[in-house]
Specification:
Elements lengths: L1 H7 L4 H9 L7 H26 L1 H21 L4 H29 L5 H29 L2 H22 L9
Helix pairs in contact: 1-6, 1-7, 3-4, 3-5, 4-5, 4-7, 6-7
Keywords: Membrane, Transmembrane, Transmembrane helix
Protein name: Major facilitator superfamily MFS_1
GO molecular function, one term: transmembrane transporter activity
């Protein structure tokens, strides 16, 4: 599931490239990046803590579905620069909610004496998949269309979310 999601999770630089293609000026590109990063930093503690109350898999599944919708919309988006600012802020919220929850789920699923190994595998899978994710995204963008690249990422995220929803059962379920 993680490998599938990560295969669709190419470099965020493609978001900035798409924003530029849609009319964002060179001067505003770093501001979009700062907005996304700032929102992620400001909300990461609060939104990641949702996984403590609602369950890791639920928060990650919801986040990956939101990612899928975001990427699909980003591929379909007309050239309205004003829409990009709230979308980048929203993407920052996605990052804030899922990055901590993913790592916490690794800890929940791992045997206590194998925690370091589990995090090592998590980082290995993410690290190995990020390069092909960006190469594939770039190839789809160049040889087909931006929508094909964003659609592929969206599809990977949606399928990974469905797999996570049905297959992952944490060792320590959250009380209802």
């Amino acid at each position: 599931m993680l490998a599938l999601f990560t295969l669709g999770n190419s470099s965020n630089m493609f978001l900035l490239l798409r924003a530029h293609d849609l009319g964002v000026s060179d001067v505003q590109i770093p501001l979009l990046w700062a907005l996304m990063s700032g929102v992620a930093a400001l909300f990461s503690t609060h939104l990641s803590s949702l996984s403590d109350r609602l369950g890791r898999a639920r928060v990650i599944t919801a986040g990956w579905v939101i990612y899928a919708l975001f990427y699909l919309l980003f591929g379909l988006l007309p050239a309205h620069v004003a829409l990009l600012w709230p979308m980048f802020a929203f993407y920052g919220l996605f990052l804030a909610a899922t990055e901590g929850a993913e790592k916490a789920l690794v800890g929940d699923l791992a045997q206590r004496e194998r925690g370091g190994t589990a995090y090592g595998w998590y980082n290995l899978v993410v690290g190995l998949m990020l390069l092909p994710a960006s190469v594939l995204f770039g190839w789809l963008w160049q040889h087909m269309a931006p929508l094909a690249a964003f659609g592929f990422s969206s599809g990977c995220a949606l399928l990974a979310a469905l797999l996570l929803l049905f297959w992952v059962r944490p060792r320590h379920p959250v009380a209802a």
